[in-house]
Amino acid sequence: MNNNAETQTTLASWALAIERALQKEGADNAAIFAAAGIDKEHLRQPEARIPVTTMWRLWREAVAATGNEAIGIRVAETIFPTHLNALMFALQASSTLQDCIERMVRYARVVSTIGMISIEYGEQQVAIRMHSSEQPERPFQPVDALMAVVVKVIRDILEPGDYDCIQSIHLCRPEPDDRLLFDQFFACPILFSSENNEIILDAAAIESPLPSANSELARVNDQILNEYLQRMNNETTSLRVRKEIMRLLGTEHLNQEYIASSLNMSARNLHRKLADEGNSFKELLDSIRHELALGYLEVSNMSIGELTFTLGFVDQSSFSRAFKRWTGMTPSQYRKTRATA
User: Order of strands across the sheet with 190-191?
Assistant: First the structure.
């Protein structure tokens, strides 16, 4: 599993699920998304993806704005099936709980490329285990939300009398100050500060036929998901350029001509390919610098001078001008606002 968050992506419509939860909380969506550096129009493109680091920043902004550590649970409560492409439809059409869980494993990358799901079968229990990045800047809420969505899907496809097949929830995160929403949503024992993020099921329940089973709908949605993953595997030029920019930040080779050469094409051809995808080298470089600058200022003690060099700006005044264009404040002002938030 690739744990390098800088090169990983998340389904953009996942952010729309966060937006819906924020609406329920009465939060200022526009301000939160602006602070996270996310253009909401981009999220409505059917196959759009955004960097995992940007999504993490959105989660942090959501928690800061609402004061609700359990905002991930709110996301599961308010999510639309379409927020996860065809995945929820495929899961709901599964023939058995085992069939459903195995689909989760196959298609987890649709939601996010940074994590994975595995299954551990035992004689009496089955564990659905979530694996994610161990980077210290990763917020807890993405895993909270994914675990809650999985529980929601399982309950949606079970007969009401079978809900107790979910025996316990294990979360690596520490216990929140207010765990009420966790207890109300999961309605089963929850173990915080656990070794793994996992959902424990009664093994006897996983092979029983499901009332929502529909083999034709499962087949059609599997096809949609397989085709989507195939397109993901054929990396776009924009993603390849993003990776090169990340590799070359702070070096003398951070320019379009050098990156075009490293991708075995001319600068003119690179410009055309990026334009075909609705991007440009300047826009990608600016977006990456914006994302990284916000992240470094929030979670590191790096000086403004060091950050200027790391992001590849020629001098500190150039960085400050760019940062003020992104946020309306200087880097130092922004760091002070985050320290007091």
Answer: 116-121, 125-131, 197-202, 166-170, 190-191
CB-based burial, 162-179: b 16+ in 10 Å, e otherwise: beebbbbbbbbbeebeee
Q: What confidence score (pLDDT) does residue 194 get?
A: 97
Encoded tokens for 131: 């694996």
Neighbours of 230 (CB within 10 A): 9
Q: What element of type H or E holds 169?
A: strand 166-170
Q: How far is Cα 119 from Cα 104, in angstroms, rounded to an integer?
A: 10
Mean pLDDT of each 10-residue bin along the chain, 341 residues long: 68 94 94 86 80 91 95 96 94 96 95 92 96 84 96 93 93 96 97 97 94 94 93 81 88 91 87 88 91 82 90 92 92 84 60
Q: What is the DSSP string of 39-59?
A: -HHHHTSTT-EEEHHHHHHHH
Structure tokens at 225: 């998901």
Question: Tokens 């609402």 — which residue?
Answer: 66
Distance CA(204)–CA(208), nearest Å, equals 8
| Alpha-carbon separation of residue 215 from 107, 110, 226 (angstroms) | 17, 21, 16
Crossing angle of the two packed helices 215-233 and 97-111, in degrees rounded to 10:
30
As a residue count, the chain comes to 341
